[in-house]
Write a structure and sequence with these properties.
Layout: H1 17-25, E1 32-33, H2 50-62, H3 75-86, H4 91-95, E2 98-103, H5 105-119, E3 125-130, H6 135-143, E4 146-151, H7 162-169, E5 177-181, H8 194-207, E6 210-215, H9 231-234, E7 241-246, E8 259-264, H10 268-283, H11 292-302, H12 304-334, E9 351-353, H13 358-368, E10 370-371, E11 377-379, H14 388-400
Parallel strand pairs: 1-10, 3-4, 3-5, 5-6, 6-7
Antiparallel strand pairs: 2-8, 7-8, 9-11
Helix pairs in contact: 2-11, 2-12, 3-11, 5-6, 5-10, 11-12, 12-14, 13-14
The protein binds (2S)-2-hydroxybutanedioic acid (LMR).
Length: 401
Amino acid sequence: MALPVASRTPAPPDPILGLAEAFRADTRPGKINLSSGVYVDDTGITPVLPSVLEAERRMLAAETTKLYRPIDGDAAYRAAVRDLIFTPEHEIVRSGRSATSHTPGGTGALRVAADFLIQEGANRTVWVSDPTWPNHPQIFGLAGFRVRPYPYVHPGERRVAIDAMLAALGGAEPGDLILLHGSCHNPTGVDPTADEWRRIGDAVEERDLLPLVDFAYQGFGDGLREDADWLGAIARPGRELLVASSFSKNFALYSERVGALTVVATDAAAATSAQSHIKVAIRANYSNPPSHGAEIVTTILGDPALRAQWEVELAGMRGRIHGNRRALVDALEARNVPGDWAPIGHQRGMFALLGLSKEQVARLRDELAVYVVGAGRINVAGLTKENLDPFADAVSTVIAN
Ligand code: LMR
């Protein structure tokens, strides 16, 4: 027997995707799934966007080959992603000091970033918000990083604990990696204000840290440009950074696994050089990217009418989530559930953190067939007219008793 001894004991299920599996296996009627961050409409369906269907129609008519794509993806896709993050007018784009690689999803981008940095001898410490997406410590830990937390939200209050965060970062070494959520923080839904971003940017510069911005929800907060409000603070003249993009949510392309890693260097030559090392990390990992999802994104972003249609569809998803936030606050307040729920109404993105204990989360699942993540992270997009009241009743039950 040569398999590692540890592999004979099953690994714990994934804290998010494992719940989706458990939900599928649950046969209780009226079960509610607010676990993984996927958009659903009011009928509980995750639809293919009409702009995506139109792009696919065009692609099918024009397709001639299934040849390998370049290691870092097609040039048109890479340029489209770069412009979506920064806008064509941004100094980073005009100077050519960024390079984008097509990766399988935002998760692929994070793993490629981690491999690239370890491979080239970067500091092996990454600072992540506490709390953060559970896959962050897993990705960086398995790639060989030491993962250190920085405080992120005031316990009980739903705002950024900026002083505590900056105090913790005071212990970072020059060159350490700092992972930031560009918008729609996962799991809290709490984003820094403009002034807080500025202070984070100052700390990054003073301590000479390398920021990696996880930008998985562009357009799900306040808008495509509004959600890039971290740019001014983090993407300062001459500063280096990395951006991991995902198009799972804003194009609803979950199963196509489409994302990108963008490196910003001091000048164009340094960006090209960094890109050549990123290509080594990609080649050693999955060789070259799957093309279908990226072609959809390129087709939509490259056609003004289709892009305008997609932006309307994205605004529709965003608007429904904002409406759900307000409806949830109303439902919890109407039941006098103890707690300060109002801030959930103006947070950003798919998630809200209810701040439940492990026991309360287990009771929701075991007694009431309601699936939420960790300390009560809910996918606000998963609330529908049908499940909102039963969900608020269930929260009220576990908090009150
Ligand atoms: C989430 O946080 O639920 C999503 O990003 C889906 C995932 O891969 O975990």
